[in-house]
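FIELD: query
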Amino acid sequence: MEMAAEFVKSWLKLSKDWNTQMETELAPQLTAGQLQVLELMLQFEPMKPSDLLPYLETTPAAITTLLDRMERNGLVRRDRDEHDRRIVWVSMTDLGRSEAERGLKIRSDIVSRSLERLSLHNRQLLIYLIGKVAGTWEPPAGSSSQADKGADKPAEASGTASEPAAVSETGAGSEAVNG
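FIELD: result
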């Protein structure tokens, strides 16, 4: 199987497994989509519904439906802006805040259970590599290694949490890849 196809197959299975576990463990009070909104609100509260668009892969109508359901369930409230009545601000309720905390713990537990299948080194390496692929990994301040500069060749084995020892092109690293 081609490398990209194998990656997609594994990524989709992992995503499906995590989503199934999330929906089961969050129920009945919360869905994964609602948790995503609450998590954003933990960072940016209050928000206008339109502020959610860049973060959620959906339409304005779907966001309205989602917020309607969340408001009915007591997770959020909507308030008109004091100075411009056309603007609606969405805020979390106390229940929404506690459900956000519960949901984030559930997600952390689900991911941790999956990562426990790997050694500490391989967990660090996986996080590093996914960050590089996603473009979200940032080198530590003051670092100037070859891997930090986006080179395709593996860096020298360092074993640090911020830049784990690299795995060679054949998949062999300083320890077994499977565990």
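FIELD: remark
Residues 146-161, 168-179 have pLDDT under 50 and may be disordered.
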